[in-house]
Amino acid sequence: MSKKSFRQAINEALRQEMRRDPTVILMGEDVAGGRGGSAGTQDAWGGVLGVTKGLYEEFGETRVLDTPITEASYIGAAAGAAVTGLRPVAELMFVDFVGCCLDQIMNQAAKFRYMFGGKARTPLVIRAMYGAGFNAAAQHSQALYPLFTHIPGLKVVIPSSPYEAKGLLISAIRDDDPVIFLENKVMYDVEEEVPDEPYAIPFGEANLTREGDDVTIVAFGRMVGMANEAADRLAKKGIGCTVIDPRTTSPLDSETILDCVADTGRLVIVDESSPRCNMATDIAALVAEQAFDSLRAPIRRVVPPHTPVPFATVLETLYLPSVEKIEAAVTATMNHRVTEKV
Amino acid sequence: MQIARETLLRSYRAMRTIRMFEERLHVEFATGEIPGFVHLYCGEEASAVGVCANLTDNDTIASTHRGHGHCIAKGVEVAGMMAEIYGRSTGVCRGKGGSMHIADLACGMLGANGIVGGGPPLICGAALSHKTLRDGGVAVAFYGDGASNEGTTLESLNLASVWQLPAVFVVEDNGYGEATAASFACAGTQKARAAGFGMPYIECDGSDYFAVHEAAGEAIAHARAGKGPVMLHVHLQRWYGHFEGDAMTYRAPNEVAEAKRDHDCLKLFRERVTQAGLFEDSVLDEVDAAVTDEIEAAVLQAKDAPLPQSADLLADVYVRY
Questions:
Q1: Which of residues A166, A194, A222 is at a domain's end?
Q2: Would residue A140 show up in a list of annotated catalytic residues for this protein?
Q3: Which of A4, A129, B88, B249 is most buried, with most CB under 10 Å away?
C-alpha cells in the first residue's frame, strides 16, 4: 500500500493485467507515442497525458500498439480482435471522439452477442477521458456516459478515485463483455492509498462513501468527491447525507439507491453530463416509479445547463456542479414542506 | 494453377448451394412468409467460393448485408441459415440476427453486417489476432464498391498497411451501391486506392471461378507469408435488386439477361471442367440434385421449426450482467 495518483493506479492496473494475461494488448493514438519519429524515442509520450507511460518499454510493440489518428479503424479493430481471441484495451483519448467511431461501438461490439444468438464474447475495454474543468472547451470536455449507458450490450464504468480506478479497471479487463471505462481528466493527479497487489472491484455494486439519515446523494465519477465534501459540510450543520457512488452506470445498482431513498426519503443526484436524458433523469425516473411513497420532497438534480461546455474559466465554473450547488440542493430538499391537499 | 479435383467439386457444390439458396429465397420472400429484408448474392457466387477455397477454418472473414454467399462459402450450415432467415429459434443466431447478421465464429465467419463498411475495421482486428497469436491465420474483408467509399474502409486500408496485417480486402464490385452506379459514386480507381496505401492490387473476373481462385490464392499467400495486406478487386454482376422488391429501374432492361447469358459462373465452370475432361456432366448433375434436396429440406425444416420463446428476448445481451 502506498500513495498513488489516479494516473498511476490506472497504469498499474494495465501493467499487472498485461503481465498476468498475454492476450491483453493496448492500442490507441500515442499510447506509446513517438513511433517512427526522428529522435528514436519510441515511447516519448506514453499516452497524451502519460497514463500508459512505460508500458511500451516493458511489453514492446506487439502488445502496445500506436495507431494512426483514425478512431473508426482502430476501435473497430479492437472489436474484431476481441471476438477473435485477444483482450484489447483501446484508448479513445477524449471521449468526445466517439463521434468518429460510434458505429464500431454501438452497432458492432455492443451487439455481437445478442445478434449472434449468444455465440460471441467481446472482451473489449475502451478507455477514454471525460469531463469539464480543464478549459478544453466544447469538443474535449463532454461527459458522454449517458450515451453509452443507453446502449444495451455495453457496460459503463466511472471510477471516482485512484483506489476505485485500479480495482474497476482490473474488473473491466477480466470482463467478457465490452466495457467503456471513463476517466475524469481533472483527476489524474489526485492521490490516495492504493494497494500494490491486483484487486478487482465488481460491477453493479454501489459504494456508500458517506452515511447519514436525512438525504441520499447519488454522484458519479469526480462528482463523488464533491458530494463527500458537501456532505461533510452539511454534517456540521446537523444534516446527515448518504453518498452513493454507483461505480457503474451499466449495470446500475438500483437496489442500493432504492434502499437508501427508502431510509432518507430525500434524493439529490449529482451528474456532470448534459441534463436531458442523463443519469440524473434516469435515476429520478427509477425512484419516482419504484419508491414514490418513500419520498418526502421532490427529487433534486444538480446538473449542468443544456449547453455545450464553454471555454472561459468563469463560464466553465458556472457550468459545472460544485460543492456549493450540492449543498444548496440538499438544503432545499430539507426545507421542502409537503402541502396537504384540501 | 492446378486445383485438386475434390476442391473443384466442393467449390461447385458451394456455388450451386448459394445459387439455389438465393433463388429459393427469391421465391419464398415473395410469399410474404420471410420477415424483414433479404439481399441476394446470385450472380456473384464465384467470388465468395473462389476466395474461401483458399481459406481454412482457422482463417476469418467478414461479410456484408449481401452475406448469404460468404456464409455458405465459409462453411456455415445451410439449414441453420435458412431457419435464421425465417426467424426461428433453430437458426444459427437463434432467430435474433436474421439475414443481415448471420455469423458463425466457430468457422471463422465474423458476420454479415447491416452497416456498409462495417467489416473492414473488424477484419483489421481479426488479422491482428492472427498476427499476435501467431496462428498462421489470414483475415479477409468482403465489401462492395459502395463500401469502398466509406471512411471505415479507407481507414482500414491504412491501418492494415501501417500494422502490416495478414489481411485481404476483397472489393466485390457489382457496379451498384444500392441504386447508385459505381461509375457515379467511386472517384478514381480501386487500383489507385490500393497503391495509395502501399498495398499490392490484383483484379479478376468474378464470373470465372478459376480466375478468382488464382487471384485470391496469390493475395492470401502474400498476406499469410507476413508480407502485409492486399486488395483484390473482383468484377461482378448481381442478378437481383439491392434488396428483394427492388424493381431495378436504374438498370438497362437487358443488363441482367446478358449477365445471365454471358457471365453465369456456374455455366462457365461446368463448360470448363467438362471440356477439360475433369468431370462428366452426370457428376455435376448429381451435385445439383443433392443440393436441390438439401435446400428443399432446409426450407421445410425452417418452416416447421419452433419460434423463439418470450424468454429469448432478454437472453444473451451480456455474458454476465
A1: A194
A2: yes
A3: A129
Of A54, A320, A302, A329, nearest to A186 by C-alpha is A320
Backbone CA torsion sign across A161, A163, A169, A174: negative
What pLDDT score was predicted for residue A342? Answer: 60
* A201 within a domain of the structure (yes/no): no
Task: Read off the pLDDT band of A340 (50, 70, 90).
Answer: low
Per the listing, cell 458537501 goes with: A230
Query: Are A223 and A205 contacting, i.e. CB atoms less than 8 angstroms apart?
Result: no
Who's near B267: CB < 8 A, 6+ residues apart?
none
- Does residue A276 carry a pLDDT above 80? yes
- Mean pLDDT in residue range A138-160: 98
Residues of chain B contacting residue A112, judged by C-beta atoms under 8 Å apart: 103, 111
Which residues on chain B are in Cβ contact (under 8 Å) with A75?
121
Class of domain B5-303: alpha beta
Q: What is the mean pLDDT of the segment spanning A206-225?
A: 98
In chain B, residues with a C-beta closer than 8 Å to the C-beta of A72 are 121, 151-152, 155
Q: Strands A179-184 and A125-130, how do they pair?
A: parallel
Residues A217, A319: one domain? yes
Q: Rounded to an integer, what distance in angstroms lies between the CA atom of residue A273 and that of residue A280?
A: 9
> How does pLDDT run across A43-72, given as a tens digit for each residue?
899 999 999 999 999 999 999 999 999 999
In a domain, A341, yes or no: no
Q: Is residue A199 part of a domain?
A: no
Do the chains contact at A175 and B163, CB–CB below 8 Å? no
Nearest to B118 among A74, A78, A108 (CB): A108
Across residues A187-209, what is the average pLDDT? 98
User: The domain containing residue A111 runs over which residues?
Assistant: 2-194
Among residues A140, A150, A306, A336, the one annotated as catalytic is: A140
Element (H, E) at A330: helix A323-335
ipTM of the prediction: 0.95
Assess whether pLDDT exceeds 90 at residue A85. yes
pLDDT bin (cut points 50, 70, 90) of residue A267 is very high
Amino acid at B168: V
Instruction: Assess whether A30 and A71 both reside in one domain.
Output: yes
State yes or no: cis peptide before A251, omega within 30 of 0. Answer: yes
Are residues A278 and A136 part of one domain? no
Q: Do residues A223 and A149 both lie within one domain?
A: no
pLDDT score, position A40: 84
Beta-carbon separation of B62 and A80 below 8 A:
yes
- Tell me which residues of chain B have a pLDDT lower than 50: none
Rounded Cα gap, residues A145 and B69, in angstroms: 39
